[in-house]
Specification:
Domain Receptor ligand binding region: 16-98
Number of strands: 7
Pfam families: ANF_receptor
Distance between the termini: 54 Å
InterPro entries: ANF_lig-bd_rcpt, mGluR, Peripla_BP_I
Subcellular location: Membrane
Oligomer: single chain
Keywords: Glycoprotein, Membrane, Receptor, Transmembrane, Transmembrane helix
Radius of gyration: 25 Å
Helix content: 10-25%
Number of domains: 2
Strand order of the largest sheet: 3-4-5
C-alpha cells in the first residue's frame, strides 16, 4: 500500500508534537559542544574557516577547557554553565503519582528544584490521608536471602510495590 502526502507548505511541528522530556538535555549537550568548538576555533584559528593546523587534530584536553568555560541560554530558557567540578546546575521536576481516572495513575508535575531553590505547589499534591506513607525502596533481606520478583499491585487508590526475600 502506498500513501501520498501533498504538502501545503503550512505544516508545522507545533501541532500534535510532544518532545521527549530528556531531549532538552541532548540538545543542550550538543549546544555546549558547539559553543566549546566555536570558542576554541575563534582563539586558535582567528579569521579562518575550517580547521587550522592548531586544531588538526583536535586536542581533547584543550577542547574540554573551552567546553567548561561555555555558558549560554538552554533550549528551555535556562542558563547553562559548568561549575568548578565540571557539573551543570541541578534542575529537577518534582513529580507526584496521582490517580487520574478510574484505575489509572500518572506522574504529574507538582514543583521543581533548581539551583538550590525548591518550589512545590501544595495544591497539586495528592496525599494518602489515611496513613503515613513509608518511603523505602524495599526492606533488606536477612543474611543468606536474596530479593525475588517485583510487582505493581493496584489496590483502590494506591500503588504497592511488592518484592520479597527468599
Amino acid at each position: 500500500m502506498t500513501f501520498y502526502f501533498l504538502s501545503t507548505g503550512k505544516e508545522g511541528l507545533h501541532e500534535n508534537y510532544i518532545q521527549d522530556s530528556k531531549m532538552g538535555f541532548v540538545i543542550n549537550a550538543i549546544y555546549a559542544m558547539a559553543h566549546g568548538l566555536h570558542d576554541m576555533h575563534k582563539d586558535l584559528c582567528p579569521g579562518q574557516t575550517g580547521l587550522c593546523e592548531a586544531m588538526d587534530p583536535i586536542d581533547g584536553s584543550k577542547l574540554l577547557d573551552y567546553l567548561l568555560k561555555t555558558s549560554f541560554r538552554g533550549v528551555s530558557g535556562e542558563e547553562i554553565y559548568f561549575d568548578e567540578n565540571g557539573d551543570t546546575p541541578g534542575r529537577y521536576d518534582i513529580m507526584n503519582l496521582q490517580n487520574v481516572g478510574e484505575d489509572r495513575f500518572d506522574y504529574l508535575n507538582v514543583g521543581s528544584w533548581s539551583e538550590g531553590i525548591l518550589s512545590i505547589d501544595d495544591n497539586k499534591l495528592w496525599m494518602n490521608s489515611s496513613e503515613m506513607v513509608r518511603s523505602v525502596c524495599s526492606d533488606p533481606c536477612s543474611k543468606g536471602q536474596i530479593k525475588v520478583g517485583i510487582q505493581i499491585l493496584l489496590k483502590g487508590n494506591s500503588a504497592t510495590f511488592n518484592d520479597y526475600c527468599q
